[in-house]
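Write out this protein's structure.
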Amino acid sequence: MKSVVIAVRVSLLFMVVCGLIYPLATTGVAQVLFPKQANGSLIESGGVVVGSELLAQGFESPKLFHPRESAAKYDPTASSGSNRAVASSDYAAELANKIAALKEENPTLTDIPADLVTVSGSGFDPDLSLEGAKAQVPRISAATGVSVGDLNGLIDRLSKTRQFGILGEPRVNVTELNSELLKQVKL
């Protein structure tokens, strides 16, 4: 009986420490040291939250930049990749269809960046390569009337370099890019 009482006390102690004190302490420290990140790295436009820097959103309009496709259909509760093998004939056919659709939407496109036709591993990659963003510039310019130079300048201004100078590739956040574009063009 003494062992049961000790086990219950220890369990209650750990529930309070691990389930209450520790989460409150880490949340408080995060709010003080990293408030933007602790609150979801939200992107605001005109005082309205339009998305997060961390999660991709689907944009269908020909006047906006399109992100990488999401196998989870941009649903944050259903993170997943496509789990398709690159040697699969189904995958090859799917890529051929995506390339054809991309060329139809962007008729001047000659070089196709891989991130415009492949699915993000997590399904929520918010960033696009600079090549992927710039490949969409002629379509957006024709649809919005914004000059190619201004769109390329916007991409360059919002681009991010390699993390710590060595990790990843130069990239641009599509939600942030579209938010800035919408400030210039009324859709």
